[in-house]
Design brief:
The protein is an alpha/beta fold and about 325 residues long. The protein has helices at about 10-30, 75-85, 105-115, 130-135, 140-150, 175-195, 245-255, 275-290, 310-320; strands at about 65-70, 90-100, 115-125, 155-160, 200-205, 230, 260-265, 290-300. Strand 2, helix 3 (about 105-115) and strand 3 form a beta-alpha-beta unit.
Length: about 325
């Protein structure tokens, strides 16, 4: 299912010398403890030139309660308004950026200061995946990666999501799985080259049709290039109104080739008679699955009005279930 979206002196010399010695000593102690993807040892601070270590955020003890709203996180007012609606602050803010847009460092910082992680869906609308893989955008790509590294706060990047659908230029009508994987790996490697290891890489296919045997593994860049599997799927009037009916086939397909944590990066429910039950199905499914680390509600008006506020019983059910202590935590306190 495709939901159309609305389209950051001597004393001074002595101090410097001591700092250098400390930095070298610290590197000697931690430099051989790199994790996968070249990340430093868990718990590394986001200061002193050391990249922020995102690994404690990958499998948190509690679940992410996220939202995507127009204007956020560049302004946090939409997130605060949503928090008043559902009774709890979101700790994940999802937003969209086109290829060529600059990194929203201020928005990422705004979200972080409110205890939330930012995940950007980065959409290559004005180029091709082949050109990206061949390096034609490398100046832009390096500039974006350096800005991410300079801010040195955790951020999730979902590059060219819904690649298994035919509605995007980078989807099944515009490119091949091989070219998609080649572009993904190139983008990831450029970030690695500039030291931007403070990124959580979110691979985000659209859900497949129930009972189909679609081979998503052809699009998978590999465990060394992915931190989260971020599914995109919605409860609609014509789709199943159970969690397993909507997400089960996709989760089973992904399980064949990846055991990375799953995040429902883009989800929601159409307004109407089913919304209350759909909200309950969403929470029940995520709560029951240890490998699903949370979800982000698509709180926008597109082909349908996915905004939670348009359905009073949906709001009440969401608010009741979000009160569970399992949902929500301050991302700044996870170490």
């Amino acid at each position: 299912m495709r939901a159309t979206r609305a389209s950051a002196a001597p004393l001074a010399s002595l101090v410097a010398l001591v700092s250098l010695v400390v930095l070298v000593a610290g590197f000697a102690l931690t430099g051989c403890s790199q994790g996968s993807g070249g990340r430093p040892a868990a718990g590394a601070p986001a200061a002193g030139g050391v990249p922020y270590d995102v690994r404690p955020l990958l499998r948190p003890e509690k679940k992410y309660l996220g939202v995507s709203r127009p204007g956020a996180p560049h302004s946090m007012k939409p997130a605060r308004d949503w928090a008043r609606l559902v009774g709890k602050d979101p700790n994940l803010i999802a937003y969209y950026a086109a290829w060529g847009d600059g990194f929203d460092a201020s928005g990422t910082r705004n979200a972080w200061n409110a205890g939330a992680l930012t995940v950007v869906s980065w959409e290559p609308q004005n180029t091709t995946l082949s050109r990206i893989a061949d390096g034609s955008s490398d100046d832009y790509l390096r500039g974006f990666a350096k800005a991410v590294r300079t801010l040195n706060l955790p951020i999730g990047i979902s590059f060219a999501d819904e690649m298994n659908g035919d509605w995007e230029k980078w989807g099944t009508r515009g490119t091949t799985p091989k070219e998609y994987v080649r572009a993904w790996r190139h983008v990831h490697d450029v970030f690695q080259d500039v030291g931007a290891t403070n990124v959580i890489w979110v691979w985000s296919p659209n859900i497949i049709e129930p009972e189909t045997q679609e081979d998503l593994s052809r699009y998978y860049p590999g465990d060394g290039y992915v931190d989260w599997v971020g599914l995109v799927g919605y409860f609609t009037r014509w789709d199943p109104h159970t969690f397993d009916g909507l997400f089960g086939s996709t989760l089973a397909e992904v399980q064949r080739f990846s055991h990375k944590p799953r995040l429902l990066l883009e989800t929601g429910a159409m307004p109407g008679l089913h919304r209350k039950n759909d909200v309950r199905a969403l929470f029940d499914g995520v709560t029951a699955a240890p490998d699903i680390i949370g979800f982000a509600w698509f709180d926008r008006r597109a082909r349908a009005d996915w905004r939670l506020a348009v359905s009073a019983d949906g709001v009440a059910e969401f608010r009741r279930l979000a009160a569970n202590d399992l949902y929500g935590f301050d991302v700044r306190r996870v170490r």
